[in-house]
Amino acid sequence: MKRQFRIIFSLVFVLFSLVTSGQSVIDNKYALIETFAVKANSVSVDNFGNFYVTGDNQIIKFDRDGRYQVKFEEVKNGKIGSVDVTNPFKVIVYYPDFMKAIVLDKFLTEIASYNFFDLGYTNVTAVGSSADGYLWFYDATDYTLKKIDVTGNVQLQSQPVNQLINKIINPNFIIEKNGQVFVNDTATGILVFDNFGAYYKAIPILGLQKFHILQEQIVYYQDDKLRSYNPVTFDAKMISLPDTAGVVQAVIDKQRIAVLKNDRIDFYKY
Fold first, then answer.
1. Are 39 and 55 in contact (CB under 8 A)?
2. Less packed terminus of the chain by CB within 10 Å, N or C?
């Protein structure tokens, strides 16, 4: 009987050790490679693994190892509302107060701009880059997702979204990836369209200000945790962070993770 008790106790101890050591391995798998002092609101990663830190009026670009590359700064257009870095050769910066979107090249130099007031629109809430080099935006006046070319001509337009889902949405973020357009609304979730503007479904992840797509996973920072969601398998996971104190936002890429804090950005490899 004593021998059986010792065996059971040993198994429990081993299982406990695996759980605790497993958590330790997860927490300790990151190695800090760079840090940079900055006050910012968000961090993004492009398809090449470059990171972008965005403040009210500036964007700083870093390479995948956290090395400073270049800075863009502009105050005349108001505060930056959103940045789409999916295409590092055409970074889209949207200024909602002036309803203006500008396009930056890989050196964060302005190469084009869209003034939605001049194009005849009065309520554009979100914009994003399209895979063919054009621009997606949500027109809250007629509740449609539109794609325009460089001259402002409409190339594609969805059906009125309020009729499709029986709700009025107020999107804050648009991203196209893998032939799908993801339109984020904090109250409804992530609305998914195909790249022709046809509505597909809504993913009920609420309250997001930003997310990115990594290997078909929707990755986002929420409630002090980095999370991933697979819209095909419905698997939801939490990704441990190397440091959780004072985190504003975090993004992960292949073998790299960037953690934005109140006074700096930390870059890790794993």
1. yes
2. N
Residue 12 in domain: no
Q: Residue 22 falls within a domain, yes or no? A: no
Instruction: Mention every residue, 6+ apart, whose C-beta is less than 8 A from residue 180.
Output: 192, 193, 194, 195, 200
Least confident of 41-45, 82-86, 222-226: 222-226
- Position 200: which residue type? Y
Alpha carbon 24 to its chain centroid, in Å, reads: 28
Examine residue 6 and state whether it is found in any structural domain, yes or no: no
Q: Which domain holds residue 120?
A: 32-269
Residue 7 within any structural domain of the chain = no
Burial (CB < 10 A; 0-12, 13-18, 19+), residue 57, is middle
Q: How many domains does the chain have?
A: 1
Q: Over the stretch 102-156, which tens digit does the pLDDT of each residue have?
A: 999 999 999 999 999 999 999 999 999 999 999 999 999 999 999 999 999 999 9
Q: The CATH number of the domain where 243 resides is what? A: 2.120.10.30
State the Cα–Cα distance between residues 269 and 255, nearest whole angstrom.
Answer: 5
Nearest Cα residue to 246 out of 228, 266, 219: 266
Which of 225, 230, 254, 228 is closest to 241 using CA atoms?
225
Nearest by Cα to 62 from 102, 33, 95, 28? 33
Instruction: Using a cut of 0.90, tell me whether the model's pTM lies above it.
Output: no
For residue 174, the one-letter residue type is I
